[in-house]
Amino acid sequence: MMRSLTGLALLLPILGGSTAAQDAPRSTSWRGDDWPVQTSPTPRDDAMEASLAGIVAGMTLEQKIGQMTQPDIRYVTPDEVRTHYIGSVLNGGGAWPGMRKDAALADWTALSDAYYRASMSTDMKVQVPVIWGTDAVHGHGNVAGATLFPHNIGLGAARDPGLVERIGRATAKQVRATGISWVFAPTLAVGENRRWGRTYESYSSDPAIVASYGAAMVRGLQGGLKGDGDVVATAKHYLGDGGTFQGVDQGENRASRKHMIQVQAAGYYPALDAGVQTVMATYNSWKDVAASKDYGKIHGNRELLTDVLKGRLGFDGFVVSDWNGIEQVPGCSKAHCPQAINAGIDMVMVPEDWKAFIANTVADVREGRIAMARIDDAVTRILRVKLRSGLFERNPAATAWAARPEALDDRALAREAVRKSVVLLKNGGALPLAPDKRVLVVGASADSLSNQTGGWSLTWQGTENGNADFRGGTTLLAALRKALGEANVTYSPDGSNVDVTRFDRVVAVIGETPYAEYHGDIRFPRPVAHSQLRPSDRAVIDAVAGKGVPVVTILYSGRPAYANDLINRSDAFVAAFLPGTEADGLADVLLKRGHDFTGRLSFAWPGSACSTGEAPGDIVQFPRGYGLSYGKAKRTVRLPEPAAPAACR
Ligand code: BGC
Ligand code: BGC
């Protein structure tokens, strides 16, 4: 199906610009009008269920609520984990042991060990190990020295679920090296509007790609669930995060029920089938405008969290809320939200105000706002995942990969992923680069691991990092110097004060600067034109183009960009997305070192500054599935350059 879609896309009159209405229909994996009926892939284990029931029956209310509470490591000590029976901790983006960005693996495992031992020395009848969760969304992003893979948007272009599964295995091992056993990935968003700041966390706007990748990532991360190289995975953010109105992060999804079921939710069915053990609720709300039905914030919606997810879809793991997500439910605060627990949230990510949360929730149960049966169900689910994943059997800080630096090193795999994920949009013969030629490299992104890795890299936003912070990473500039020879490469960040005509080729590396979540939103009515958003990138191209020397442009971006002006001023153009730490993979294809370009767009590429997705009427320059190879014709056509207006309408 996907294959024929790709073929079809190539026949479209893409160079003149087409509209999405002409685009090939979406391929979806579930075509039913209602939620599918699924069962857990893990058969019920009566002996385990009996022991779970025994443990829960022996717990006090405070112990149960403690199990449902997840503070951030910045705000909870090991001793507090012990005294408050804390069930889980997380390190949010940019949280490291001792708040040191360069924390060593031994620091990570020492902290993990301290939390674990604290959780195992409470006055509970049965000691319950704490589970630590982390955002390893493109490799273990919080850890200095970990190889970082391309963000999901690039992996989507690789069209290779097997690669994604191997990245999942590698990521699990990296995470295990820090003594952590739970990862908040994969993101199963189907990104529908490129204004959204999390577009790069989405594999594709094609639900079929999200569906096959989501399951592959779950298999890769979880493996057999109990092994030393396995971690618990999270399907997030349930439900509809990728389809909010105007791409507003944490905004309102206005999809019809059918669209939600067939498109936005497409990744969940196979991920649940693959045995994903946790699901994270999403910040957004859902209003089915066509049916005049308002589901409100998903964190407070019982129909979706309980009836659909735990009922029809057969999910028997636990649901975790997002970072302070409960406070957005009407009537709730960061530290109090019986509505969310009653709706089906089992564990509450309450990074800072966890003490008040515990007190408030204990009172909720005592005063009848939450039934004890709901609490018992939540705790049973949490303990079930802990039992299944082997946490009761061994200290996660003392497993095979713990504190082993080689576990962070997946350079060859990341290089392969980069090679497969970059998409050649234009080549009039400027590529491949030849090793004996003189190359002028321009653009600040050429020497920036920060722009190359994007958000969720060492820090939450991916900002405040220098190249040295990414131990062992390779910029494209460094990769080109290695590949072409130091003497053949000259670097000028802004392309000024250099005689371009002395060179055989110019390689311009431009791109967005890092962002995460709502920080990356481009709010309506702002046009989404790269040159307008980053005039310095256009200036660098203008400084080198039109001088008789072919210009090869590489664009780093977390979203498809309207860049026709930049493409027209370049002789070859590569959409490289956010490739991560290993730019050698880019050099491999730029030089055609035994590898051709095989990446194909996983999102349509816009042909105007106000076309924000693949909705009817949007102008598509390159449809999903587009991508050139060296083998293909080199004819280039001047693209239309509709000017970006001051504001979109
Ligand atoms: C994000 C989640 C993430 C969590 C923990 C939230 O703001 O939406 O994707 O897992 O923070 O860092
Ligand atoms: C955390 C992130 C989290 C974000 C949400 C940050 O302080 O480090 O992990 O996603 O807050 O607002």
From TrEMBL:
InterPro entries: Cellulose_Degrad_GH3, GH, Glyco_hydro_3_AS, Glyco_hydro_3_C, Glyco_hydro_3_C_sf, Glyco_hydro_3_N, Glyco_hydro_3_N_sf. GO terms for molecular function: beta-glucosidase activity. It comes from Sphingomonas koreensis. SUPFAM superfamilies: (Trans)glycosidases (SSF51445), Beta-D-glucan exohydrolase, C-terminal domain (SSF52279). This is 1,4-beta-D-glucan glucohydrolase. Residues 60-385 form the Glycoside hydrolase family 3 N-terminal domain. Belongs to the glycosyl hydrolase 3 family. Residues 1-23 form the signal peptide. Keywords: Glycosidase, Hydrolase, Signal. The keyword DNA repair does not apply. Residues 422-630 form the Glycoside hydrolase family 3 C-terminal domain. The keyword Signal applies. Residues 19-30 have a biased composition (Polar residues). Residues 19-44 are annotated as: Disordered. Gene3D superfamilies: Glycoside hydrolase family 3 C-terminal domain (3.40.50.1700), Glycoside hydrolase, family 3, N-terminal domain (3.20.20.300). GO terms for biological process: glucan catabolic process.
